[in-house]
Structure formats: C-alpha cells, structure tokens
Specification:
Aspartate Aminotransferase, domain 1; seven-stranded mixed β-sheet; Aspartate Aminotransferase, domain 2; alpha/beta; about 375 residues; globular
Length: about 375
Amino acid sequence: MKTPKTGEMLHLRGNALTTGDPVALPLTQSSMYHLPGAPEGHASYGRVDNPTWVHLEHVLAHLEDAPCLAFPSGMAAISAALFATVKAGSRLLVPSDGYYVTRLLADRFLSPLGVEVEERPTATFAEGGFDRLDVVFVESPSNPGLDMIDLAVVAQDVHAKGGITIADNTTMTPLGQRPLDLGIDVVVSSDTKAMGGHSDMLMGHVASRSAQIMERVEEWRKVSGAIPGPHEAWLLHRGLETLDVRFDRMCASAQILAERLLAHPAVKQVRYPGLPDDPAHALAQAQTARFGFLLSLTLESEDKAETFINACPLLRPATSFGGVHSSAERRARWGDDVDPAFVRLSVGCEPVEELWYAIEASLNAL
C-alpha cells in the first residue's frame, strides 16, 4: 500500500522559502485584500481566499495524493461532498450504522429536496447490489461498530452501474487507509479528530481526483460560506506536523489494549480490527496500513459502563475521538443502535502501560 511521505510533508513549506521567510506557517487573519485595478489572479475576499488555507490544503493534498479543500468541520465536508454530487431525483445509499449525523443530513435535508435515501448496515452493505444508485456513501471502519467493507469492490461495482462513491475516512486518516487509491471517487474526513489531534478546533476536508467534482465542491464552499477560519486552519496545519508520530503510538497502544481487554473478566466483548478473531480482521489486513486507534468494549450493564468511564483517571468522558487524550463514551446515549453497555474507546498518546494500569484498575473495581 502506498503511504504518504510524511518527512517530505514536513518540508513542503520549508523547501519553498526564501531568505528571511518564517519557517512556521504565518496566520493570515484578514477578510480584505489590497486590490487596485483588475482583481484577477489575486486573493480577493476572505470567503474565497486565504493564504493560510492555501498551504494547509497543499499539505492535505500531499497526504491524500489528490486535490483537497478544507472545511470548518467534518459535517461541512460531508455536506459539501453530498450537495456537490446529488440533486432532486438522485438515489443515495448511506450506512445505517455509520456516523448518525450523516443520516440526519440525508433524512432531514436531502430527502425533502427530492433525494431518495436508502440505508444498509456496513457488514451487509453490498447485498442488494448498486443498481440505480447515483451516490454511494461508505464508512469503513464504521463508527462506532468498527465493521468494514471492501472499498475496492464497492468502487468497482458502483462505477459499473454509473454511480459515484464517497468514503468517510475519519477513523483511519490517510496514514491508515487510502480510499482514493482503492478506486473511491471522493474522500471526506473530520479533521477535528486525529488529523488535528489536540481537541482544540473543528475542521474537515474533501479530496478527489475528479476535477469536475472538486469544482462543484469549491463552488459549494464559496456560495454556502462553509469556510474554515484561518486560525483553525493554522491549528490543523500544526497538528498535521505530528500526525505520523501520534497515529503510530495510538494504533500500537490500541492493539495492546484490545488484546488485554479481551482477556479481562469484566469485558463481555471487544471489537478491534487488529484482533485475529474480529469479523473485520481479514479485510483490515488487506485494506489498511494500520488497524486504527478506536476499539469498543461491551460491559455487563449501562451502570457499569458509566462507572468504568467516569472512574478512570486516564479516560476523558467525552464525545468525539482521535485526540492525544484517551477518551470514552457510551454511544447508546446518542441513539446509536448498540448495547447500552457498549463503550467506544479512543486511544490517545499516553504511555501504554500507564494507560492500561488505569483502565485495568477501573475495570477491577466494577
């Protein structure tokens, strides 16, 4: 599997500098630009242009090996990708077990505009085929259940029927999985999560090798005003500079924790693609470079799940994931179709033995 050259990424800006230029990316905080005469070829207005975005998108494009556009959140990126590819009369397929806000967008806003929406679970997503589907939106691994789907097969089958594919790659990042290389048309990501990594901003991006799709996505951003703030763009750029080391540690720790959790008597079930007996393991081995930093554990009851999370000093009880701080939550509280005692655990950058000691102590006290 082709992986991004992250060392080269760190020097994309540096290798273009001239004497006296700042090494760190400058933050351009301006809504207006000096525009005497004809404005063509110059930055024009803050809703359309920003030099901080431009370099951020250069780095994102390096990671995705495709043109990228930045957005103020993951849902803004998902919205842009969908509004750029569907219209009244389109048929859209989305995962029934993926991120629930994507389903809300489809149900509450796209459906009333005349888009026909169908849902299928990730584990059986390809059953029923892709006839008469205009856009197929996939999430692999699914959030929060961590089921996977063969992206290359889906892309091939959907294209054979004349459809477009969109993949949400938030849980894996371009370092862990490369949907565009597998034939997917569009990748979306919530860079609020591991890409930024510090839980201090909201951002997202859309990437595609289709110039036509990217033109539509860029037009949507300009017209809708779904633009990232320059400070958030600057923060994401800074986060990307440590993505490689953070992602490596998070994935390595998740593997160790999953194996130990599997053997703990208080844990009824563990899902992690890196476990040999996990239903997604064989596909993950073939499709991903790493098994990821997300895992799930199911305990005996809702009360015990809450106690485990809230009593562990090295777990933040919070929604979202992908930060340097390990976090956990019961996803049933948001309406996901999971066991009430199902816990999604996002493994952070703490030393793994220290983290395991805290998790084990919290489980032992149940």
